[in-house]
């Protein structure tokens, strides 16, 4: 056999091998999320999840991730999964207004103490069936929360509620908007990725975000002062999948997805967010920025009456709509103490 023929045969074999590998996946899942591709969330949660699924399925499931809201904008990501534009997403329920009112009870003051603890709370609520009515149109894999949200301001230092009067503050959800309105601030709704440009242009005076968000979306570059009101609020997230896509999987591949679902991944996500909270706070300290920590957090006498009023108002609104808000909220508080 000539050298030329051997080289040609080797080249053909390699080409066939590459082609076989490229065709190995039985299922390709398109996943959308809004975090930057360089973020720890992308690498340590979503890519890590995709890697586990690929390995466990022996390459039969391939997950193509579209970070940075490249497949769909943040407020549209849940509907993108419902409508089949994406096969799955990791998104904030509050970005889809009025769709997850019972899930958003975990946003209320005093519920979330850390991302891992909050993730346990919301995942437990889901596993106990208390949130079933809100997820009939997708197949949730796991729920999680970020850590405690704080105030991050461009200029003005917030020491007490009156310091917020008339300030334009980015709010992530209707629940947080209600809290801000009670504090006489002017809430401005926007997804987290839009905060940098809005703060830079002076559209807003500050943001409500956890330390993780301040780091991941580079807001520590623009803010100079931060106020921690422990337990002010948090946000729930869901990693969820198109129902038809999940139902169409063969049983063995459904098991792969099922094994990458539930509390284990909920807590993993929480751990990543908690680590980022620590790093974000350390960045602000290293930059010499001002950090005010309110003694007693949401239980502080200057803050508690307003936050309690906003909490009661939200719960009563849901009750007036016929939703079992008090029952779910009572269980949420029990879980908040249990998930330590």
From TrEMBL:
Residues 1-24 form the signal peptide. Keywords: Signal. InterPro entries: DctP_fam (IPR018389), TRAP_DctP_sf (IPR038404). GO terms for biological process: transmembrane transport. This is TRAP-type C4-dicarboxylate transport system, periplasmic component. It comes from Marinobacterium lacunae.
């Amino acid at each position: 056999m000539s050298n030329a023929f051997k080289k040609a045969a080797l080249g053909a074999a390699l080409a066939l091998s590459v082609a076989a590998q490229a065709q190995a996946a039985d299922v390709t899942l398109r996943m959308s999320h809004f975090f930057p591709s360089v973020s720890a969330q992308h690498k340590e949660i979503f890519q890590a999840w995709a890697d586990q699924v690929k390995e466990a399925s022996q390459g039969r499931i391939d997950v193509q991730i579209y970070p940075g809201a490249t497949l769909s904008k943040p407020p549209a990501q849940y509907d993108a999964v419902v409508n089949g534009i994406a096969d799955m997403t990791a998104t904030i329920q509050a970005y889809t207004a009025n769709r997850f009112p019972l899930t958003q009870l975990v946003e209320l003051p005093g519920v979330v103490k850390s991302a891992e603890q909050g993730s346990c709370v919301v995942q437990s609520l889901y596993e106990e069936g208390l949130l079933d009515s809100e997820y009939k149109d997708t197949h949730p894999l796991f729920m999680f929360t970020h850590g405690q949200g704080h105030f991050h301001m461009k200029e003005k230092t917030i020491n007490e509620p009156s310091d917020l009067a008339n300030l334009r503050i980015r709010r992530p959800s209707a629940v947080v908007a209600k809290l801000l309105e009670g504090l006489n601030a002017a809430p401005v709704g926007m997804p987290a990725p839009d905060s940098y440009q809005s703060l830079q242009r002076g559209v807003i005076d500050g943001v409500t975000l956890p330390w993780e968000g301040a780091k991941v979306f580079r807001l520590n570059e623009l803010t100079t002062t931060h106020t921690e009101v422990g337990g002010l609020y948090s946000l729930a997230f869901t990693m969820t999948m198109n129902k038809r896509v999940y139902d169409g999987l063969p049983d063995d591949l459904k098991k792969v997805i099922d094994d990458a679902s539930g509390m284990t991944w909920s807590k993993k996500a929480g751990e990543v967010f908690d680590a980022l909270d620590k790093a974000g706070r350390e960045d602000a300290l290293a930059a010499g920025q001002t950090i005010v920590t309110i003694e007693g957090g949401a239980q502080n006498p200057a803050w508690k009456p307003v936050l309690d009023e906003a909490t009661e108002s939200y719960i009563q609104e849901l009750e007036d709509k016929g939703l079992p808000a008090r029952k779910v909220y009572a269980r949420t508080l029990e879980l908040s103490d249990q998930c330590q």
